[in-house]
């Protein structure tokens, strides 16, 4: 558990299809400013979605609760807590964590009908290129077919890559499905690092609890 809670390098995302020595996507240069811009932008975009805004507000309270998890077994307790959260609120918790890590997040205006994409993250240093985000509040193992469906959605919509975020278990078939794709897996200690510390570093291939 101490590995998940220690301080990591500056935030960065790397596609699971890239070799370990490949250059990573740039970290945000002004993370606090990007976070503030993201919050203001999404508030304006969702002014006519009061229930959506309430879920976002609740997601930030959940992040504050997770930040207080400490000591032996904190990771297991955090995952147990997250699995009790409403699935739509869990989506917002993850997006709020990415936002707090210093990225501009584009939240969906609805929770269905978006081809399995639950939000987008603007790639720092680009003119609007985005990573797609798919978020699953699993209690058990990941369904490998969901990875393939997400990869197809990424290609069809022209995203730079994708972040597949879940709080379940990652089996060998899912890891095989990820090979050679533009999908980055965010689970286990990487997810804890994001939600407990709001740091988007060491993303990629972490085992879930």
Shape: globular
**What is the chains' assembly state?**
single chain
What class, by secondary structure content?
alpha/beta
Number of spatially distinct domains: 1
What is the helix fraction of residues, given as a range? 40-55%
Task: Briefly note the CATH topology name.
Answer: Trna Endonuclease, Chain: A, domain 1
- Got a strand count? 5
**Distance between termini?**
10 Å
Strand order of the largest sheet: 1-2-3-4-5
- The CATH architecture term is 3-Layer(aba) Sandwich
pLDDT < 50 stretches: 1-23, 202-209
Series of secondary-structure elements, N-terminal to C-terminal:
HHHHHEEEHEHEH
Q: What CATH first level would be assigned?
A: Alpha Beta
- Average pLDDT works out at 81
Strand % is 5-15%
Chain-wise SSE layout:
Layout: H1 2-5, H2 31-45, H3 50-66, H4 74-82, H5 87-100, E1 105-107, E2 119-122, E3 130-136, H6 144-157, E4 161-166, H7 172-178, E5 183-186, H8 188-197
Helix pairs in contact: 3-5, 6-7
Q: How would you sum up this structure, described in words?
A:
The radius of gyration is 16 Å and the shape is globular. The termini are close together. It is 43% helix and 11% strand. The protein contains 8 helices and 5 strands. The model is unreliable at 1-23 and 202-209 (pLDDT under 50). The longest helix is centred in the N-terminal third of the chain and has 17 residues, at 50-66. Strands 1-2-3-4-5 form a 5-stranded mixed β-sheet. α6 (144-157) runs parallel beside α7. It has a single domain (27-197), classed as Trna Endonuclease, Chain: A, domain 1 (3-Layer(aba) Sandwich). It is of the alpha/beta class. It has helices at residues 2-5, 31-45, 50-66, 74-82, 87-100, 144-157, 172-178, 188-197; strands at residues 105-107, 119-122, 130-136, 161-166, 183-186.
């Amino acid at each position: 558990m101490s590995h998940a809670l220690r301080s990591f390098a500056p935030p960065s995302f790397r596609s699971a299809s890239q070799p370990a020595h490949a250059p990573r996507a740039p970290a945000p240069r002004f993370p606090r400013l990007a976070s503030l811009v993201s919050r203001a932008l999404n508030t304006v975009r969702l002014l006519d979605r009061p229930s959506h805004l309430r879920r976002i507000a609740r997601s930030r309270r959940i992040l504050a609760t997770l930040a207080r998890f400490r000591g032996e077994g904190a990771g297991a307790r955090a995952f147990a807590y997250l699995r009790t959260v409403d699935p739509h609120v869990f989506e917002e918790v993850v997006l709020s964590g990415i936002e707090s890590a210093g990225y501009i997040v584009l939240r969906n205006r609805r929770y269905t009908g978006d081809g399995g994409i639950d939000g987008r993250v603007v790639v720092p240093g680009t003119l609007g290129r985005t990573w797609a985000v798919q978020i699953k509040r699993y209690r058990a193992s990941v369904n490998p077919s969901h990875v393939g469906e997400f990869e197809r959605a990424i290609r069809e919509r022209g995203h730079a890559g994708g972040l597949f975020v879940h709080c379940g278990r990652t089996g060998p078939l899912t890891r095989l499905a990820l090979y050679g794709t533009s999908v980055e897996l965010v689970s286990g200690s990487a997810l804890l690092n994001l939600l407990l510390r709001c740091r988007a570093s060491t993303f990629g291939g972490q085992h879930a609890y």
